[in-house]
Amino acid sequence: MVSVLRVHLPSEIPIVGCELTPYVLLKRLDGSASPEDVTEASPVDGCFLRYRWYRIQSDKKVQVCSIHPTEQATLQCLGCIKAKIPISKSYHCSPKCFSDAWQHHRVLHDRASSAVNENGTEEEELFGRFGSSGSGGLNSGQSGSISNVGQSPSMINGTTTITTPSYPAIVTERNGGETWFEVARTKTYTPTADDIGHVLKFECVPINVETRLPVGNSFPYFTSRAIPAPSPIPRCLIPVGDVMAHLDSESRISSGTFTLLSYNILSDVYATNDLYSYCPSWALSWPYRRQNLLREIVGYHADILCLQEVQSDHFEEFFAPELDKHGYQALYKKKTTEVYNGSPYAIDGCATFFRRDRFSHVKKYEVEFNKAAQSLTEAVIPTAQKKNALNRLLKDNIALIVVLEAKFSNHGADTPGKRQLLCVANTHINVHHDLKDVKLWQVHTLLKGLEKIAVSADIPMLVCGDFNSVPGSSPHALLAMGKVDPMHPELAVDPLGILRPASKLTHQLPLVSAYSSFVRTAPDQHRRKMDPTTNEPLFTNCTRDFIGTLDYIFYTADSLMVDSLLELLDEDSLRKDTALPSPEWSSDHIALLAGFRCVPRARR
Predict the structure, then answer these.
(1) CA 419, chain centre distance (Å)
(2) Is 331 helix (H, G, I), strand (E, B) or coil?
(3) Are 134 and 523 in contact (CB under 8 A)?
(4) Which pLDDT value is given to residue 284?
(5) Which DSSP letter does residue 37 get?
(6) GO terms for molecular function, please (predicted)?
(7) How far apart are alpha carbons 157 and 173 in whole angstroms?
(8) Which one, of 545, 549, 552, lies nearest residue 480 by Cα?
(9) DSSP codes of every residue in 347-374
(10) In angstroms, rounded to a whole number, what is the distance separating the alpha carbons of residues 426 and 379?
(11) Potential cystine with 540: which of 98, 196, 519, 551 (Cβ 3.0-4.6 Å)?
(12) What residues form DSSP beta bridges with 270?
């Protein structure tokens, strides 16, 4: 008899908007086990599997904490109700939770108030959405009002009322008057806001194809209570030049401005519980992270997206089709060999997306540093050292260079038919700390390739990605200064002699780091998130073991101007004692985004 041996979910905590896909192991008549989906159209041994999802509906709905979504809420901020902020963000699990979160929570109130004052209606808050101005000041005083969860929502001015839970946080019995509502008849299910605070039940039972009757008993699986998808405080787009940064999407089309995002999204193959033990397992699972990342990326509304650590299967099955729905065309280059687990689907790479209504694809260049390493070894490395040289240089990193044609023009009446081209380089440089010579060689190789493109065409350039190099390192110096000081300490480590003479470590591209504009023009609250000695962000990568800047957006300053920058995070923007990734931010890197304007030749 066909029977269900096992049902398992990647995470027992359902999250609103994140698809639940159970793993079902079926025992066949011959005793073998199969994880294949057995549908009515493709039965096995005369049977198929019938799936049902149910939501338990008890008399008392459990509200969950907006800061710690796995905890039951005991407090509600009545100021959120008055300000018409989404109710899920008004709940807290303890007085300390509310107090610790107050400064960031107050930003929600300030923004809601500003939206009403400016627009006459409350501003819709979406995950990852940002405005065109700063986030408002933060006061040290706490003036919110909170009430017992379950109390009628009346305002209690100037008081704080706290209660303990009046009902258990965990369902211990599933009977005694509880009602189960059927919510789906599919194997997969995506929880909705109606599920928040409720336990879900997945039921799987073999059905005889001929009789349409169950074969054996059903196999139920119960989840924990469903929680809302945690959302961070939205990051704002800060103008750094003039009022051009305030332009909406339609105005940008005619003005010649555009935005570019660079983001290392943390490949699933690297997102292990061993490396990120501080992140809850449900928040580290790919089904959750992919939806969280998509909401964040789409919310930035960037014209060009440069993503790193995109697994090839995730590109093909998720990011390319999902971003296509939002008007993006996709290009991809994967690393040149498989990662440690040997699966061809676990290869990650760089993905570049651009909005079809703003750009068209002209040309694509793929840079494989392994090929360059083999050519270099054949040309300059003595035969006896070739094997060691290849072992050191072959690290599988790549770069993806895309030439786009803008569907807007910034040229004057004297050149009405001139095409506006743009060259975008997206790369992920080698990560190993003890291979600083390899990092520098890879960056130098990329820049020399870009120089060849620059010679062949009068074209603005953007160079972005995860360079795995901190400000002041030799790769950063080469990018930002066009050369490396011969006395730079990192040049002392050059076992293959590939960096000598140091005078060759130059390039002629007028590259400037986009975020250096913050140091010159941004308000004080944003300059505090910058390192004044390097003119770079204090960090773009934040884990328990490392905090620093590894990601950059460089642009050619003779052909582009920075109009706006996505505000940076500071350590206060992250939860106390929490590194990345976290339930709110699904990568160990933060996204960088810059708005640019093409500069006509007459103004250079």
Answers:
(1) 33
(2) strand
(3) yes
(4) 94
(5) -
(6) metal ion binding; poly(A)-specific ribonuclease activity; RNA binding
(7) 40
(8) 552
(9) -EEEEEEEETTTEEEEEEEEEEHHHHHH
(10) 27
(11) 551
(12) none
Cα gap 432→244, rounded to integer Å = 41
Pairing state between β 91-92 and 33-34? unpaired
Residue 419 vs residues 280, 408, 414, 423: alpha-carbon distances, Å:
50, 9, 13, 13
Q: Report the amino acid identity of residue 36.
A: E
Across the range 7-35, mean pLDDT stands at 91
Give the type of residue at 21. Answer: T
Contact 28, 34 (CB under 8 A): yes
Mean pLDDT for the stretch of residues 122-129? 35
Distance in Å from the first CA to the final CA of the chain: 78
Alpha-carbon span 352 to 400, nearest angstrom: 8
In 10 A of CB 342, how many CB atoms?
Answer: 7
Burial 154-171 (b: 16+ CB within 10 A, else e): eeeeeeeeeeeeeeeeee
Model's pTM, two decimal places? 0.82
User: Which residues are within 8 A (CB) of 283 and not within 5 positions of it... i.e. 6 or more apart?
Assistant: 230, 289, 581, 582, 583, 586
DSSP alpha helix (H) spans, 242-311: 249-255, 281-284, 286-299
CA dihedral 349, 588, 467, 554 (to 10 degrees): 100
Alpha-carbon span 68 to 498, nearest angstrom: 51
How far is CA 388 from each of CA 78, 397, 500, rounded to the nearest angstrom?
Answer: 66, 18, 18
DSSP per-residue letters across 108-148: HHHHHHHHHHHHSSPPP--TT---SS------SS----EEE
Q: Is 586 within 8 Å of 286 (Cβ atoms)?
A: no
What is the rounded distance in angstroms from the CA atom of residue 270 to the CA atom of residue 574?
Answer: 22
Range with lowest mean pLDDT among 153-167, 355-369, 484-498: 153-167
Query: What is the amino acid identity at position 3?
Result: S
Mind listing the pLDDT tens digit for each residue in 575-585? 555 799 999 99
For strand 304-311 and strand 257-264, is the pairing parallel, antiparallel, or unpaired? parallel
Phi, psi of 296 (to 5 degrees): -65, -50
- Tokens read off for 197: 């605070």
Q: How far is CA 593 from the centre of its chain?
A: 12
Closest CA to 499 of 478, 521, 514, 479: 478
Identify residue 1 by its one-letter amino acid code. Answer: M
How many whole angstroms separate alpha carbon 214 and alpha carbon 205?
A: 7
Q: What's the pLDDT band for 145 if we cut at 50, 70, 90?
A: low
Per-position b or e across 257-296, b if 16+ CB within 10 A of its CB? bbbbbbbbbbbbbbbeeeebeebbebbbbbbbbbbbbbbb
Give the closest residue to 353 by CA, choosing from 377, 384, 326. 326
